[in-house]
Amino acid sequence: MLMAKRKFIVHVDMDAFFAAIEQRDNPKFRGKPVVVGADPKKGRGRGVVSTCSYEARKFGVHSGLPISMTYRKCPHAIFLPVNMEKYAKISRQIYKIFYDFTPEVEPISIDEAFMDITGSFHLFGTPRKTCLLIKSRVKRDTGLTASVGLAPVKMVAKIASDLKKPDGLVEVSPEGLLGFLWPLDIRKLWGLGGKTEIILRKMNINTIGELAKKDVKELIDMLGKNGAHFWNLANGIDERGVESAEEAKSIGNEITFDKDTLSREKIENTLMLLCEKVSDRLRYDGVKGKTITLKIRLEGFKTYTRAVTMGVPNNFTDVLYKEIKNLYNRFDSKGKKVRLVGVKVSKLSPADFRDTLFNEAGDRKKENVHSAVDKIKEKFGTGSIHRASNPTIGK
Ligand code: TTP
Ligand code: MG
Fold this sequence. Notes:
This protein has 395 residues and is α+β, with helices and mostly antiparallel strands. It has three domains: 1-172, Reverse transcriptase/Diguanylate cyclase domain (Alpha-Beta Plaits, 2-Layer Sandwich), CATH 3.30.70.270; 178-234, Orthogonal Bundle (DNA polymerase, domain 1); 250-380, Dna Ligase, domain 1 (2-Layer Sandwich), CATH 3.30.1490. Helices cover 40% and strands 22% of the residues. The protein is built from 14 helices and twelve strands. The strands form three sheets. The chain has a five-stranded mixed sheet with strand order 5-6-1-7-8. A hairpin with a 2-residue loop joins strand 5 (105-109) and strand 6. The structure holds thymidine-5'-triphosphate and magnesium ion. Magnesium ion binds next to strand 1.
């Protein structure tokens, strides 16, 4: 069996970003409660707090709090308006630093990003050293502190960066992942909030560990598809990769079997059909993709992804299928039935882009066949042409 490669995902989040910039630029504000946001107008102001310094947080002030209430809680705070232009400039400076460490940067907000340093940390020593370097570069170039989380999966890196704020660095190893996650409150799970939280608390689920140990079927009954999603997260399974700007766009399709299946033939046929659908869509949109991702959900709802990046972008069914089949052959389901399969193509580029490495003549031929097929489909509908091995899903 091919083990998935261990990943090193970093989440960086600047501390009290807007307020820290104001404190940096005006020494008189340092060590004091600083509130950035709407004008309080001596308690009669409207609008909310954008953010505040850690000194102001001690008074119960936080982002989103009405400014009038903030004034009552902390009238002696230094109230400042939002200077977005200034903050955006510093944000660009910080992102530039991130890109010095890896091209795989996924922007989340003005002061927060994911980075995949799996392929680059060796240039800087260890993954931990890389994180320390990121922090010190940010400090040196901007005078500001960042908090960093380092973990094998995205969601855990995000939780970790928040735990020792400000100026924190929290590292979670694969072995320590569940021990780290399970004592935490369910609210720490990325994306879990509002109604979901209320339902789970009613079910007497308060920690991530309690969620992880619950029967997934029960969770699905209560929460629908989200039940499986949060259960996977609670078990430390988060297959989402860091999506750099060029990878953010993708085209994919997935199918849930009527009945969970062990039949390789049925699964392969379904994968072929999915490749055809994705290939159709890529060509319809005039794009090709470099990265092909296979998604497999097993009975019991554990979900896995396996990806391969090709040397040159492509959008042909047979090329996609060859790669997908390779990924599938190397996946070990440990005798478990398969519930769902999906195919996704990302790292897209325009289809008319010609790579010099491309075998142009051969590919043109294929392109001609494909465009002939497209024409027939356009005329007679998509049911008119199929490869011999296409299945009828659900049979
Ligand atoms: P955050 O990273 O959420 O907050 P923060 O950097 O101020 O503090 P922390 O140390 O907890 O990370 O948001 C980044 C900036 O985005 C923040 O400085 C101000 C702005 N912001 C708003 O304008 N409104 C909001 O509701 C939030 C949450 C943030
Ligand atoms: Mg922040």
